[in-house]
Amino acid sequence: MLPADLQGTTPEDARLQDPFKDYIFNGMRYRTVGYLLRTPQSGGHWISVLPPIVLGLEPIGAVAGVLCDSLESRPFELTQTDLEDLLTACALEGADLRDGRDPNAQNIRWGCFLVTDGGSEL
Questions:
Q1: Is 23 helix (H, G, I), strand (E, B) or coil?
Q2: Taking CA 84 as the corner, what is the angle to CA 69 and CA 59, rounded to the nearest 5 degrees?
Q3: What is the pLDDT of residues 64-93, one digit of tens each?
Q4: Using one digit for the tens of pLDDT, what is the confidence trace for 91-103?
Q5: Is 108 within 8 Å of 90 (Cβ atoms)?
C-alpha cells in the first residue's frame, strides 16, 4: 500500500484511524484480514499485523493491533499511534522508490501489503 491508500481521499476511505475496516474497490467489498510487512532484517523478513481480536482483545482501548513475528516467541501489542507509524513508515519507503521510477522498487526493503478475503459485490 502507498501512503495515499492509507490516508485516503475522504474520511470514509482513510485507513489510518481504522486500519482493519473493509476495503472498497471497483464495486467490491473486501474484508481486511491484516497487513503483511516486509522488513530489511536478514536480507528480507516478513511480519504480520493483525487486529487485536486474534488475542481476544477488543480494538477499543490501548491495543489497536498485534504485530506477529516468527522470530519472536509472542506477539507485540501496538497502540494506535504505533500502528499508524509502522504502516506509514512501510508505505512511505515503497512510495519513494516507486515514485522515483527506481528500478529496484521491486526489491524494496520495507513494504506494506493489505491482506483481504476474496471480496463480494456491494
A1: strand
A2: 75
A3: 899 999 888 999 999 989 998 888 887 776
A4: 776 665 555 555 5
A5: no
C-alpha cell read off for 116: 483481504
Domain ranges of the chain: 3-121
Specify the fold of 3-121: Dna Ligase; domain 1 (3.30.1490)
Alpha carbons 69 and 58: distance in angstroms, whole number: 21
CA distance linking residue 42 with residue 106, whole number of Å: 17
- The mean pLDDT value of the chain amounts to 81
How many CA atoms, within 13 angstroms, populate the side-chain half-sphere of residue 31? 5
DSSP state for residue 75 in the 8-state scheme? P
3-class DSSP state of 90: helix
